[in-house]
Amino acid sequence: MSQPGGPLSQLRRGHEELVLGLLRKHGPLSRGELGRRCGLSRTTLYDILAELVAAGAVVTASRREAPRGRGRPAETLTLNPEAGQAIGIDFARRGLHVAAVNLAHEIVGSASEPHDANLPWEQRAELAARLVGSLTGGTLNLGALSAIGVGVVGPVGDPDDDSGKGTDGPHPAQVLLRERFGVPVLLDNNTRLAALGEAIWGAAAGVRDVLYLRLSHGVGGGLVVGGSLHRGAYGLSGEFGHITVDQNGARCDCGGAGCLETVASIRAVLDAYRAAGGHSGHAAGVPELAKAARAGDAAALTVLDGVGAHVGGVLAALCNAIGPSVIVVGGELAETGTALTDPIERALRAHVMPVSRHRVSLRRATLGEVAGALGGIALVLHESPLLSRYPAGPDLAKEPQ
Amino acid sequence: MSQPGGPLSQLRRGHEELVLGLLRKHGPLSRGELGRRCGLSRTTLYDILAELVAAGAVVTASRREAPRGRGRPAETLTLNPEAGQAIGIDFARRGLHVAAVNLAHEIVGSASEPHDANLPWEQRAELAARLVGSLTGGTLNLGALSAIGVGVVGPVGDPDDDSGKGTDGPHPAQVLLRERFGVPVLLDNNTRLAALGEAIWGAAAGVRDVLYLRLSHGVGGGLVVGGSLHRGAYGLSGEFGHITVDQNGARCDCGGAGCLETVASIRAVLDAYRAAGGHSGHAAGVPELAKAARAGDAAALTVLDGVGAHVGGVLAALCNAIGPSVIVVGGELAETGTALTDPIERALRAHVMPVSRHRVSLRRATLGEVAGALGGIALVLHESPLLSRYPAGPDLAKEPQ
């Protein structure tokens, strides 16, 4: 068999995708109908069908009504809706999120599990395999899996290459998952993948110019620009969290000072809440903060108001520069609701160019914590026009050999 | 004859472009060679060649050496290097810039003329026609002109359309120029066109991710994102001048307050220079300021230092968000040289994410005041991959009928 990722294997996968695409589009088809539509030779088509049937991706059935005046009923081929075609995994800082779609690109399941920020990669990969197993147990057949799309924290992209397609050597997640699943592993920054997920399936589905901001343990985001997900030179776009909001502000993990992340990350917000005497000075999490805000707690509202002003100011600057029509705010902190989004919106409207004031719309993310894993799936399927300027398939990331 | 812009005319123009492209690529070709390469019917090809020859775009010549064993030498066709194929006009706020390229896409000339900011459109169009005439007098044949690309001040794009391709009704410049030249007039924001010019022919030629900032009477810019010029929803990208740099700052023409333009436009900088006692308190222009800065004048240096800090801070924020590999600074104020670019660079390096600090390069624009006109030409030729996501030809802007 040819090397996965090699030219022959890619050609074959292209043929498979063609056949699967026809079945997805037209529903059940006979071998003859498929042959007329796909343009492949009979031998190639039958080979591919045999492999797809063996892998569980395609099932055969007899057509109920035989064509008039013919002999035995034609056997038709149809997608197996329970065969998983794509898996996305988000290796977030403090948790793992997995999602799977079937061959019809319907989301068939997702699973998440929090873990310590220092969990070694071997154990993360094991956890990932377990979560994938929990999705696939009994209901999902991974036989037709063509690749896995993976999100990781931090910049992804070759630091010396501004072509926008190269990357560093294989990431540990790529090496480990490839060992386990035996398929190519595509990689991108997990926040950019969350932006992709929201722009395909979530709050900004179908919008050509989207700015996605995630307020979580880190602050970052992603851009859909003119209908394409934007990667940036060196893979460094979407680092909204490291925009300076206070020249005299606190040191940031990035090495800078006064970055948005120093005032709008989960830790910064909870610290400010505690300092303001919120939750009786005790350690509280985002759910407690959100609850306090909903109850009208003054400390919670004041803190979120200040955060919102910073966030909205940065969003206004980015709107003037980039011109999105929709801004999506996600991450755990977005769960504090209007106590945060109202001040964000106020600062946004106050500082965006007046001509844009009523044109840009601010929306809460809708996909929750699996947005990044869903974005990973999109990377694998590579069917969204949002990915039209992305390198296709395994070329995106150098594959460990 | 079919309507310019109609489907038949577009088909015909497509055929013309095909023939011209072959001649551009292969040099002189006989009718037979052209026929084999272009795939058009003999009748269509001969018709098109006759029109191109009549228009002066293509000239005939005899091939020196007759093919072995044949009769009379074959007549070959070649591009007329003196035929102007494209004109770009930048209707800037206080002046007009015109550039022309020949069929080989070589710049054959450019001309500029300052005028009052209130000059009516009729007179601007007249001035444009005169400048075009001065370029074409004797050396340039406008017969093959297929369209004119025009830059204007302000947003260009349909305010209710986020598809990125619509526009408002025809702009006065479109109506007037079309009357004079009888060809389609394509329109975009002139600063975005200057960004396009710099990214094709100028300081950032060949770079996939470029941020262009123009410091002139207004402050604005343009983005090349992942190898394409970016327009933004509602045509509103690149408004870097209206990013807030001082919440308590001066009112801005846009209706906001404390915008970058209120501290970094020509007027703001000259006002600050005067207030600092520069040029003995007398009115001075940018050339005088630049001269003072080169001579080490303290007032000039202090003012430019402050402007540079603001500009560099904004650029750093945009770098973190968008990830360009090259920043190009143009406009008249860039002519003050390192007295301005050094503080810009310092603030940029101080506030950009440390990981990007040595990856982004800051460059002075190289095309001067004709950058926008050259961008207009690029819009007409529509051959740059930078325009791959732009609507082609006259579809970009609604044509007056």
UniProtKB/TrEMBL annotation, chains A, B:
Pfam families: HTH_24, ROK
InterPro entries in the record: ATPase_NBD, ROK, ROK_cs, WH-like_DNA-bd_sf, WH_DNA-bd_sf
Membership in a protein family: Belongs to the ROK (NagC/XylR) family.
Name of the protein in question: ROK family transcriptional regulator
Organism: Nonomuraea longispora
